[in-house]
UniProtKB/TrEMBL annotation:
The gene is glsA. Pfam families: Glutaminase. GO terms for biological process: glutamate biosynthetic process; L-glutamine catabolic process. Its EC number is 3.5.1.2. It catalyses: L-glutamine + H2O = L-glutamate + NH4(+). Homotetramer. This is Glutaminase. It comes from the Bacteria. NCBIfam families: Gln_ase.
Length: 310
């Protein structure tokens, strides 16, 4: 059992916050471009009905962006099962950036390599049940609210609209997949759902609680009630290890050694098996689109706590 208290979080966050100077806030989604690089926060949500520990601006809200890919994958697996989901998306890591289109053309059959890259996540979102985009978004929100134990969670309309209006690459990926039979229906409707799932807003305490459900094999970290089937939690965690940090996943596995998922808003959720969920936020990103402060904090805490699963 790994224990992380508020003193640990304060100490390490203080130690790594300077690294924000080495990164750059994402600006390809216009509404993210004005995030303040000096904002940072971290939280650890322990399993076993204990208090959440936090440091920094822990009530500051940010959009989950690519972290949503784990949650829509969980939902699609619950709704359709592994066979159906993996007929549309692969299980292999990619060494390309998250937005890359090139493997779609060379892979045969032409399905996206995994559900953590944008193409794969779009294919997964396309499978979510609902009679239109509003119902699909509602399904996703219901799952996020359940895992975070907070029914007030919603998406940020401005960030969703800003991404919807500028998501030319994600549209291109979607049309390519539609041509190849991986995606069905309206691409505009798919982009509507996808940009809203990415714009779901949380703070680090809520994100840490979501991670804690995965750390507890799909069960509520406080009550042990099942919230996700354990095999779904296991599949999601495995993708977090192999693909969660994109083309930095190998280095991250060596340096940090836990399932984790990042988002371009600057958040990272990390899963510490049987101990709890960790969340970090710091909007300055490295070349791979991962939070610089988050990466340093996780590496230093990993060395300190020796939590690597390997
Ligand atoms: O689709 C996009 O480009 C964004 N909404 C999400 C990408 C993302 O978060 C990648 N993560 N580091």
């Amino acid at each position: 059992m790994i224990e992380i208290d508020e003193k640990d979080l304060h100490y390490w966050l203080e130690h790594v916050k300077i690294y924000a100077n080495n990164g750059k806030v994402a600006d390809y989604i216009p509404a993210l471009a004005n995030q303040q690089p000096e904002i940072n926060a971290t939280a650890f949500y322990p399993i076993g009905d204990k208090e959440v520990a936090c440091a920094g601006q822990a009530d500051y809200s940010f959009t989950i962006q690519s972290v949503s890919k784990v949650l829509t994958l969980a939902l699609a697996l619950i709704q359709h099962g592994e066979q159906a989901v993996f007929s549309r998306v692969g299980k292999e890591p990619s060494s390309d950036p998250f937005y890359s289109i090139q493997k779609l053309e060379v892979e045969k059959p032409s399905k996206p390599l995994n559900p953590m890259i944008n193409a794969g996540a779009l294919a997964v979102t396309n499978m979510i049940r609902g009679r239109g985009s509003d119902e699909m978004v509602q399904e996703i929100l219901n799952l996020v609210r359940l895992l975070a134990d907070d029914s007030s969670i919603d998406y940020d309309e401005e960030v969703a609209r800003s991404e919807f209006e500028t998501a030319f690459l994600n549209r291109a990926l979607s049309y390519f997949m539609k041509q190849n039979g991986i995606i069905t229906g309206s691409v505009e409707e798919l982009l509507d759902v996808y940009t809203k799932q990415c714009a779901i807003t949380v703070n680090v305490k809520q994100l840490a609680r979501i991670a804690a459900v995965f750390a507890n094999d799909g069960k509520d970290p406080d009550t042990n009630q099942p919230l996700l089937p354990s095999h779904v939690a296991r599949v999601c965690k495995t993708f977090m290890v192999t693909c969660g940090m994109y083309d930095a996943s190998g280095t991250f596995a060596i340096n940090v050694g836990i399932p984790a998922k990042s988002g371009v808003s600057g958040c990272i959720m990390g899963v510490i098996k049987e101990s709890g969920g960790l969340a970090v936020f710091g909007p300055a990103l490295d070349e791979q689109g991962n939070s610089v402060v988050g990466m340093h904090l996780l590496k230093d805490l990993a060395d300190d706590k020796r939590w690597s699963i390997f």
